[in-house]
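Consortium newsletter contribution from the modelling node. Members have asked for a concrete example of what our holo predictions look like. Here is one, prepared for the S-adenosylmethionine complex that several groups have been discussing at recent meetings.
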Amino acid sequence: MRDAPQPTGAEGEFPAGVDVATTVARSRGVVREKVAAQNGVPTFFDNRVLLLAEIAHSALDGAPGSRRSEHVRAAVEELTDFLRRAEAPRFADPTERLGRSLREVHAAMAADLRTIHRSQGVVSTLTWAGLPLVKSVYDAAIIPMLISELRPASIVELGSGSGASAVWMADVAASAGLAPAILSVDRNPVAVRDARVTFRRGDLTEIETVLGREELSALEHPWLVVEDAHVNVRGVLAHFDAVVRPGDYLVIEDSIVKRADLLAFLESADGRYALDRRYTDAFGENVTSAVDSVLIRR
Ligand SMILES: C[S@@+](CC[C@H](N)C(=O)[O-])C[C@H]1O[C@@H](n2cnc3c(N)ncnc32)[C@H](O)[C@@H]1O
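And here is the predicted structure:
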């Protein structure tokens, strides 16, 4: 990397304190390692980072005015943000992110609300086995990655909908060579039948009567628990807290409206859960319905 004079942070120049040469070198290094892990195939985003690095780098050599261009400034800012996230630890204290205001959450979210609102489909939902699957397109990618990495022995789904999501998780697990026990609960009956899934009718406002601790304790770990019924959230979390083991995952979907409940639960959980940023931020911060809420029991 060249030995270039560093920006001063004067008005219109690079942000104060940013060492552009180092930022460019580190960004290229992160992408190089990532692409190597992808069998040499860069993603759209990898190419974007390399282009931004090129723009920032060119300004180091350029005429004095080039350092003040908005183009360059935006590139340096985006690279700085990229590095901050890429180099942050995978697991974080969930209460820090959950403690933010909604305004802060949306400002940091890597997709705008129009994109998020369309991500479960516009004219129709996603479908699986001919049934409506009410997942965002992002969660439809995140859950399979999680199943493949976690290799759950048991999956508990709260909120079956049409039943498509439980059948889909059974198919995803099977494609990873797994045959987890799958239990899916809804207050409404589910028409679909699948030998790999136990569908159960029950009211989750009375979770103790629907999923007794003794029954849950008999399920093999690790567990993937997907909360997608949006009722009695604190009661449900407290119920599972008593039976989960280290390494189990709780994924709370559509959680933008559950933040107060989640925060209250986690504050009382005394650090027993970590936020797994690999999944919440797989497509940029919180581009998922599980906003700040893919949790691993430590
Ligand atoms: C968002 S849908 C589930 C979607 C499904 N998991 C999917 O991905 O396609 C929410 C489900 O929660 C169920 N539900 C709502 N309140 C409930 C309650 N008190 N007890 C049990 N299920 C409930 C609804 O009947 C509905 O099927």
